[in-house]
Write a structure and sequence with these properties.
The complex is a heterodimer of chains A (about 375) and B (about 280). Helices cover about 25% and strands about 35% of the residues of chain A. Chain A has about 375 residues and is an alpha+beta fold. In chain A, the strands form four sheets. Chain A has a six-stranded mixed sheet, sandwiched between helices. A five-stranded antiparallel sheet of chain A has the order 13-12-11-14-20. The longest helix of chain A is centred in the middle third of the chain and has 18 residues. Chain B has about 280 residues and is mostly helical. Chain B is built from twelve helices and no strands. Chain B is flat, with a radius of gyration of 25 Å. The chains are: A alpha+beta (about 375), B mainly alpha (about 280). Chains A and B meet through strand 6 and helix 2 of A and helix 8 and helix 9 of B.
C-alpha cells in the first residue's frame, strides 16, 4: 500500500492551464475526493496520476517510486472510468480477469479473484454474460469489480456514479464506501457532486481553475470553507452571504447588517477590528440560523418571500437588505409568504469573508496559543 | 367489445397519419422496384432460353429454366481469364487498400497532428479529380515504366482509387471505439500495442472486414481504369465493356448477371456482419 504525493504538477492544453502547480499528498489507505465544477482540472489531475496524461512539469510519487514518466501499467494503479469502459467483446468474467491475465497470473488464482471480486459486487451470477446484456448499474459493478480484482496499491475513480440514475447512485454510494473501507486501497475519487464528496471522502480537495482551494475533512470543508467559492459550492443550499459594515465601539467590534449588529466570537474580534469602517461578508449556513415566530432579543426581523416544505425541513427564502438568503427550519415551523419572522445568528456559526480576496478570516493562532 | 367514438378532429388526425404512412410505404416500394426490377429482369434473362431472351414482351420469370445462356457466356473466349484477373486485382486492391487505410484511419481518428484536416481533404481530392483527365498521362506513364497491360498495375490504380473511401470508412470505424477502452486496457497492464491488439482490433474487425469487402466490390465493378491500362489482360468488366456492342443479347444479360452476383452477395454479407456483431454496444 502506498501514499500518493503530487509535487508542483502543471498540465496545460494549448493556452488552457488545466492543472496549475498543484501539490497534494494522499496518505496510505486514505480516500481523497477531488471535487470541483466541470473544467476545474480534477479529471486531468486524476489522469496524471493514472499516467493517461503526462504532466508538463512537477513530480508524481506513488509510495517511494517516482512514477511521473511511467506508463499506466507500471504504476500499480487501477481505475474505474466514468463511461465504465468495460470491453464489449468480452464476457463479464474476462473483463474482471483482464488485469490479472495481463499479469500472467495462474488460472486458478485468476478464477478465485474474479469470483471474490464479483461476489463483493453481487454480480457473481452474471459472469457468463456480455456487457450488452446488462443494465447500466450492473455494468458499473463490472467496472468496479475489474478495478478491485487486481489488488492495486492505488485505486482511481473518475466520476464512477455520474451515469447512474438518482436512486441507484444513492445505493451505490453507500456500497462503494463500505467496499473501499474494506479494501483499504489508497483511493482518489473525482466527482462534481458535492454530496458524494461529503458523504464518501476522508478528505476533500476542492478545486477550481486548476488549483486546489481547500484540502480538508468533509466536516471542515463544510463548516469552515476556506473561501467564498468553497462556501458557495458546497452544501444544499450553499452558504448564505450577507454584506455588513465593521464598526468599533468602545473596544468592542460589531458588524452591522443595516441597523442590526452581529457579534463576532472573541477569537476573531481582533482580526475583524482591522476592517473597522469597511465592508465584510458574513457567511452562514441555512441550518445554523434560528427562526422565531415572535420578536426576541438579538433577533433580526425579516419578511418571508418563499416557503418550501421539503419534508425533513422547511426552507424559507428571505430578503435581508440587498441579500437573499435561505433559512432552514423545523418542519413544524409555521411561516407564509409576506409574514414577518425573526432570525437569530449564533456568533460561532458565522464565517467572516474578506470581500475583495474572498478568503475566510481565520483566528490568529499564535495569539490563541500564547 | 367497445368501439371508441372518435370526434372529427381526432378522425382527421388519424386519417392524415395513415395517409402519410401509406405515402412513405409507396415511396419506399417505388424506390425498391427502381433498383430491383432491372436486377430481376437481368436474372430472368440470364436463365431463359435463347428464344425467350430475344422474344418480346420479356417474361418476368425464367420459364422454362435453363443454364444454357450462362454456359454460353462462360464459354466465350477470355471470360475465365478475365474473371481470374478481376479476382486477383480485387484481392490485391483489398489487401493493399486495407493495409494502408487501417493505420491512416487510426491516426485520423485518434491523434491530433499538424495538417490533419488538410490530410483529410487531400485524400478526398484524389476522388474529386476526374480520372478521364488523367487517362492519357496515366497510360503514358504506365507504358514508360513498363507496367502497362499488367494485372498488378490495375490493382495499383484501384488501390489509389479506393483508398479515399477506405480510409474514411476505417477512420469512422475507429472513431466509434471510445478512447477509454484503450485507456482501460493500458491501466490494466497493456502497452499501446497490446491495448490495440487485445481491445481495439477485435472491436473494429467487423467494420474493417466490411470496408475490405466494400473495397473488393469497388474494384470488381471498376471499369474505366481497367479498360485504360490493359489490352490483353483485361479484367472482367473491361472485357465485357469491350465486347458489349458487338455481342449477343444472351452475352449481355448473362455477363450482367455474372458481374452482379458477387457484389450483391458481398453487400448482403457486410450488412449482416455489421448488424449482428455485438449489436449496438460498439457505438
Amino acid at each position: 500500500m502506498a501514499e500518493i504525493r503530487i509535487e508542483n504538477a502543471v498540465k496545460t492544453f494549448g493556452k488552457v492551464v488545466a492543472v496549475d502547480n498543484v501539490s497534494l499528498t494522499v496518505h496510505e489507505h486514505e480516500f481523497v475526493v477531488l471535487l470541483g465544477p466541470s473544467g476545474c482540472g480534477k479529471t486531468t489531475l486524476l489522469r496524471a496520476i493514472a499516467g493517461l496524461g503526462m504532466v508538463d512539469s512537477g513530480r508524481i510519487m506513488i509510495g517511494s517510486r517516482d512514477v511521473t514518466y511511467l506508463p499506466p501499467k507500471d504504476r500499480n494503479i487501477s481505475m474505474v472510468f466514468q463511461s465504465y469502459a468495460i470491453f464489449p467483446h468480452m464476457r463479464v468474467f474476462d473483463n474482471i480477469a483482464f488485469g490479472l491475465k495481463m499479469k500472467r497470473m495462474p488460472k486458478d488464482e485468476i478464477k478465485r479473484r474474479v469470483q471474490s471480486a464479483a461476489e463483493l459486487l453481487h454480480i457473481e451470477n452474471f459472469l457468463d454474460r456480455y456487457p450488452s446484456q446488462m443494465s447500466g448499474g450492473q455494468r458499473q459493478r463490472v467496472a468496479v469489480a475489474r478495478a478491485i480484482a487486481v489488488h492495486a496499491e492505488v485505486l482511481l475513480m473518475d466520476e464512477p456514479l455520474s451515469n447512474l440514475d438518482a436512486l441507484l447512485r444513492l445505493e451505490m454510494r453507500a456500497e462503494l464506501k463500505r467496499l473501499l473501507a474494506e479494501l483499504k486501497a489508497t483511493t482518489v475519487y473525482v466527482t462534481h457532486d458535492q454530496i458524494e464528496a461529503l458523504s464518501m471522502g476522508d478528505r476533500i480537495a476542492v478545486m477550481r481553475e486548476g488549483r486546489i482551494l481547500q484540502f480538508d475533512s468533509p466536516t471542515k470543508v463544510y463548516d469552515m470553507p476556506a473561501d467564498r467559492f468553497v462556501a458557495g459550492f458546497i452544501g444544499t443550499p450553499p452558504m448564505n452571504f450577507l454584506e455588513g459594515q465593521v464598526r468599533r465601539h468602545d473596544g468592542a467590534v460589531s458588524v452591522y447588517i443595516g441597523d442590526y449588529a452581529l457579534k463576532p466570537i472573541p477569537e476573531l474580534a481582533e482580526t475583524l477590528a482591522r476592517y473597522d469602517g469597511q465592508p465584510i461578508v458574513a457567511g452562514i449556513r441555512a441550518e445554523n440560523m434560528e427562526a422565531l415566530g415572535q420578536p426576541a432579543e438579538d433577533a433580526l426581523k425579516v419578511t418571508v418571500l418563499v416557503v418550501e416544505p421539503l419534508g425533513s425541513q422547511n426552507l424559507l427564502t428571505i430578503r435581508i437588505g440587498e441579500d437573499i438568503i435561505k433559512v432552514s427550519t423545523h418542519p413544524d415551523f409555521r411561516a407564509a409568504p409576506d409574514q414577518d419572522i425573526w432570525i437569530r445568528f449564533p456568533s460561532d456559526k458565522i464565517r467572516w469573508i474578506d470581500r475583495d480576496s474572498g478568503k475566510t478570516l481565520l483566528p490568529d493562532l499564535d495569539k490563541l496559543m500564547s | 367489445m367497445t368501439t371508441r367514438a372518435l370526434d372529427p378532429v381526432q378522425r382527421r388526425a388519424l386519417r392524415r397519419q395513415q395517409l402519410r404512412r401509406a405515402g412513405v410505404y409507396a415511396l419506399a416500394i417505388l424506390i425498391a422496384l427502381w433498383i430491383l426490377l432491372p436486377i430481376w429482369l437481368i436474372g430472368t434473362m440470364a436463365f431463359s432460353t435463347r428464344d425467350d431472351v430475344y422474344g418480346f414482351p420479356k417474361q418476368m420469370a425464367p420459364i422454362p429454366f435453363t443454364t444454357d445462356t450462362m454456359q454460353f457466356f462462360i464459354d466465350q473466349p477470355g471470360i475465365i481469364d478475365g474473371t481470374r484477373n478481376s479476382i486477383v486485382v480485387a484481392v490485391i486492391t483489398l489487401a493493399m487498400s486495407t493495409l494502408i487505410a487501417a493505420p491512416a484511419g487510426y491516426a485520423i481518428s485518434r491523434y491530433f497532428f499538424v495538417g490533419r484536416d488538410a490530410y483529410r481533404l487531400g485524400i478526398l481530392a484524389v476522388r474529386a479529380f476526374p480520372i478521364v483527365i488523367l487517362a492519357v498521362p496515366l497510360a503514358v506513364t504506365f507504358i514508360e515504366w513498363g507496367m502497362f497491360d499488367k494485372v498488378y498495375s490495375v490493382a495499383l490504380m484501384h488501390t489509389a482509387l479506393t483508398l479515399p473511401t477506405t480510409v474514411l470508412v476505417v477512420s469512422s470505424v475507429f472513431a466509434s471505439i471510445p478512447r477509454e477502452f484503450e485507456e482501460a486496457a493500458k491501466v490494466f497492464g497493456c502497452n499501446a500495442y497490446q491495448a490495440f491488439m487485445r481491445v481495439v482490433l477485435p472491436l473494429v474487425l467487423p467494420g474493417i472486414a466490411a470496408s475490405a469487402i466494400f473495397t473488393f466490390v469497388m474494384s470488381w465493378n471498376e471499369v474505366f481504369a481497367a479498360t485504360l491500362l490493359t489490352i490483353r489482360n483485361r479484367t472482367l468488366p473491361a472485357l465485357i465493356l469491350y465486347q458489349l456492342n458487338k455481342s449477343s443479347l444472351q452475352f449481355q444479360y448473362a455477363g450482367g448477371f455474372f458481374m452482379l452476383v458477387p457484389s450483391l452477395i458481398f453487400i448482403f454479407f457486410i450488412r449482416r456482419y455489421l448488424f449482428n456483431m455485438w449489436g449496438q454496444i460498439t457505438k
